[in-house]
Amino acid sequence: MAPARLTVGIVSAGRVGSALGAALERAGHVVFGVCAISDVSVRRARTRLPDSEILSIEEVAARSELLLLAVPDAELAGLVQGLARARVVRPRTIVAHTSGANGVGVLAPLAEVGAVALAIHPAMTFTGHDEDLRRLANACFGITAADEVGYAIAQSLVIEMGGEPVRVPEDSRMLYHAALAHGSNHLLTVVVDALAALRVALDGPGLLGQQEIDDQPGGLAERLLAPLASAALDNALRRGQSALTGPVARGDADAVAAHLSAMAAVDSRLAEGYRALSLRTAERADAAPAIFELLEGH
To answer: 45 with 18: CB under 8 angstroms?
Structure first.
């Protein structure tokens, strides 16, 4: 079932809320108001949602047909309880939050007064820049609802925003969120650690006309790693475990030991991160016993 054109209110105008608000407006809905507290949020609201009023939480909630709660996970339960106590959310209002870790249970205080509770989480990282809206077109959204009517509404909203809806059971939301954090946040950590080591390895006179190594993003270290990292990610997503290469998978304990020593000479924390991930890689690859002996005893 496709929802009618809705009057949308957003709490708050952070990176996620403002991006989803702009996507909803592109789909024909009307974002009449947003709650924006900080100067950064106010500027973002005026840039991305210039026709929307900046209002209090209570005003936004009272006038919304679709109320989008785009606040940090730790603030969501308190916000919902406050809205329920204030009795500002009208019955039949669609209330959707964007938290990955929460399902619709957190919205129970509003569901009890007749709201339609939805969890609509974009599985995407947001920067606050123009690329956010472009990325939404290729993003999946983890949706959870209390019943099939709710799922149909959530599905329609996500499709209108250009995303792909994916049903996530209520009791699986935390595992869903943990998996996404592991595959995105920790990927960033691995890449940034690798770049730090590369900058040390490449330090010194470069080739004629080549950029000197510094600690700014977008330099030689990034250009060196980007094709390899992009190919590795693409291979993992396309071919899974069979795409694994490198000294751990080959059982080359001498190479792994040399890697650990080189990393430790730069920063013991880099070496420890390499060791921990190598051990997990060895478990996945069912590596040779010598690899486990090296990594577990290091």
So the answer is: yes
Say if CB 140 and CB 123 are below 8 A apart.
yes
* Rounded percentage of the chain residues whose pLDDT exceeds 70: 96
pTM of the complete model:
0.90
Do 140 and 133 meet the contact criterion of CB atoms below 8 Å apart?
A: no
Q: Answer for the pair 173, 102: CB distance below 8 angstroms, yes or no.
A: yes
Listed in sequence order, the residues at least 6 apart from 215 whose beta carbon sits closer than 8 Å to its beta carbon are: 199
130: tokens are 């123009």
- Return the minimum-mean-pLDDT range out of 123-132, 156-165, 189-198: 123-132
Q: What is the pLDDT of residue 298?
A: 59
3-state secondary structure of 69: strand
Q: Which amino acid belongs to residue 286?
A: D
What is the residue whose two structure tokens read 């595992």?
Answer: 175
Strand 116-122 relative to strand 140-145, pairing: antiparallel
Please, how many CA atoms are within 13 Å of residue 27, restricted to the half-sphere of its CB? 26
pLDDT value for 72: 94
Beta strands in the chain (DSSP E): 7-11, 30-35, 53-54, 66-69, 94-97, 116-122, 140-145, 164-167
Q: What is the mean pLDDT of residues 9-29?
A: 95
